[in-house]
Amino acid sequence: MDNYFSELGRAVYDKWKAKDFSLIEFPMIAQQALEKKPPARHVDLDQLLHNFLLDDNQPFQTTSGFGQPELIVYDSPKFYIQILFWLDGTTDIHQHGFSGAFHVLAGSSIHSRFDFTNVTPITPHFRIGDVILQETHLLDTGRTVPIHSGPGFIHSLFHLETPSVTVVIRTHSDPGTDPQFTYLPPHVALDPAKHDSLTTRRKQLLDVLEQTGDENYAPLVIKMLNGLDFERGFFILQNCIATLRHLGVWEKAWGRFSRKHGKLALAVAPTLNEIIRRDGIAALRASFEDVEHRFFLALLLNVGSRAEILRLISSRMDEDPLRAIARWAGEIIRATESGIWMLDAFFPFKAGENDDLEQEQEFLLEALHHFITGEKPSPKLRKLSKVNLELLKETLKHSSWRNLLLPDKSATSRNRSGKLHA
Ligand SMILES: [Fe+2]
Q: Do the bridges between strand 188-190 and strand 339-342 make them parallel or antiparallel, or are there none, so unpaired?
């Protein structure tokens, strides 16, 4: 048993008891306790790990799959303290069925807060609405953030260092605040603890058909979409979208779903696209070891505006933000046999184009620089036809680079005049 956390637990218990265990008071009590004697300054993590591995006298451990892993370092019937390790994890956007506070013990994270508005409940476990980003900021080692249960505190964390370690003082569960919705921007909230076993098995069976190349896969999915309710239809679409696109039948499947569900379906297409984008970026995070690259990924994943991305880069780097982005782009660009990847933007080779890979990559980086800075195109870029340059820009517009691109001058002036939408 670690002395620091035993003392911290007892101090929190006494303070909370003096407030008659009022749930409203708990986040502030937990936050103040963590700030008064911060774990980042008072915990010897190596020593703690050593003791945890060698000393059997430990608090009750859960079988929770949260954290990589989760260690319980203090427990009582009223609340407990956990240490969460994060190796390559990003959290989903989520709310909590418990309250308390968390503290960054090691590493740092990008922390984003969200609101969920215009809510339409579909079932008790599935909602449609607008997931709106409120703020994004950098959480350095030593920072503490209160946790309030329910939909008033919706957040996500993108951990930058490996491992990142957080300490959480939390209640077991706060009555009336379930389910702990997970949010899929821009429009869906779902209960991740609700498992519809029939749907799970159906998705697994479809995966079998997909992996064995069964020709009935697409017709069966489309028939299912004809019959299923909105919630289960969404899960089937989410599971099958990549394969349906690959098979060239996505439009047909989508047509069935959208005709059946009318206005409600409008929330689904952008959500499915964003799921694919976010999954792609989260997967890249695992393969990116450089903390600066992870920082950049976190910004592209979470931050909606160019100005805000540049501000956050300035807050962490001594370098000019646009220069930093150009440098990162040069470091993360990857060539494959079929084309060049800049994160989730793919530029396929045309015949004979991959003769000089280095030159191709340089060319794409120059184009990116031109689109995000507005600086005059290089002589090499000027040789490219306007149509081809626009094609490059279109690819970037449909990727995670989109928020960094300067707006098209023509579009801006038309919008300002108001005539385009009159
Ligand atoms: Fe959380």
A: unpaired
The order of strands in the sheet holding 339-342 is 334-335, 339-342, 345-348
Torsion sign, CA atoms 8, 14, 20, 25: negative
**360 alpha carbon – ligand 1 mean position (Å):** 43
User: Ligand 1: distance of its center to the CA of 110 in Å?
Assistant: 13
> 126: CA distance to ligand 1 center in Å?
19
pTM for this model (two decimals): 0.87
| % of the chain with per-residue pLDDT over 70 | 94
Q: Are 131 and 187 in contact (CB under 8 A)?
A: yes
| Position 383 confidence tier, pLDDT thresholds 50, 70, 90 | confident
Percent over 90 (pLDDT), the chain: 69
What's residue 240's pLDDT? 96
Q: For residues 135-149, give the mean pLDDT.
A: 95
**Centroid of ligand 1 to alpha carbon of 340 (angstroms):** 36
- Given the candidates 2.160.10.10, 3.40.1190.20, 2.60.120.10, 2.60.200.30, the CATH classification of the domain at 3-185 is 2.60.120.10
Contact 108, 166 (CB under 8 A): no
What pLDDT is attached to residue 361?
Answer: 87
User: Where do the domains of the chain lie?
Assistant: 3-185, 197-266, 273-412
CB 218 within 8 A of CB 253: yes
C-alpha of residue 336 to centroid of ligand 1, in Å: 37
List own/partner pairs for 329-333 with CB under 8 A and 24 or more apart. 329/365, 329/368, 329/369, 330/365, 331/290, 331/293, 332/288, 332/293, 333/361, 333/364, 333/365
